[in-house]
Model the fold of this input.
Amino acid sequence: MHDALGLALTVAVWTAGEILVAGTVPTIVAALAPRGLQGTYAGVSGMSWSAGAVLAPVAGTALLPLGAEVLWAGIGLLGAASALGALLVAGPVRRRTCPGERGVRRSARPGAEASIPAG
Done:
């Protein structure tokens, strides 16, 4: 789709992804940061996004002479590695941000609010 509709769909998907990331990343960073270091963690997180915004076009421009296929394969591999990394850290992040849920099994009975230790 190399027309206005294709461009509009691309922009819509890209924007939806940015909206999801814009609220999620700072929340996770703040939850994982030790007390008193939330600002430092937020700064490093923001700096890493800025570094990516600067380095990605440079890397893309360097790969483009090798052909569009090489560029898109590289982007695809980087995206797949990022998705794998997100899956690998999801469990540890969940354990650190929701410690009350770890090792506790809730009763399946409706209206039963008490927790039952997992065993």
